[in-house]
Amino acid sequence: MTVSAAPGTFQLASPDLLRSTFRRHAAGVAVITASGDRGPVGFTATSLTSVSADPPMVSFGIGTGASSWPVVAEAEYVGVHILGEHQGDLAATFARSGADRFGAPTAWSPGPEGVPVLDGVLAWLVCRIVGRVPAGDHRIVLAEVVLGDPTGTGRPLLYHQGSFTALRD
């Protein structure tokens, strides 16, 4: 391995190196939802990516140890919600382990294909899962867009340096 950085300034690959590096990467914040036998599940994701325009397809990552994984592993459809800068508390609720994610004050309703749809988001999609790709301790979920609503108003919520934030002018 050839290293051009000054000695002592680099680290070998590790989970901590990856986390520290990606804390410096600003990412949009989404909530992924699905419906299971025991009710709705959901989690906050910063790994949402547009994959294809034709057909319209997205991807996101989910840890196999996540409480939502067993439902997402079996679900046919998921909801993808783009959060606004006013929804930091909602993002935190869906990121918190053990939280009642769909209890008050979360406003939502059953949507198309039974997918939980969150109120007040900038945009939402209902997507059909077409693949789950193993990736270390995660799965990359590929999902084809079925329908959605991009008409919410406001500016996007971002995740940077370990906290939720907004765009600056």
TrEMBL record:
Biological process, per Gene Ontology: pyrimidine nucleobase catabolic process
Gene3D superfamilies, A to Z: Electron Transport, Fmn-binding Protein, Chain A
Keyword terms of this UniProt record: Oxidoreductase
UniProt entry tagged with the keyword Oxidoreductase: yes
Domain annotation Flavin reductase like: ranges: 22-166
Pfam family, one: Flavin_Reduct
InterPro entries: Flavin_Rdtase-like_dom, NADH-dep_flavin_reductase, Split_barrel_FMN-bd
Superkingdom, natural source: Bacteria
One term of GO molecular function: FMN binding
Name of this chain's protein: Flavin reductase
Organism: Streptomyces bungoensis
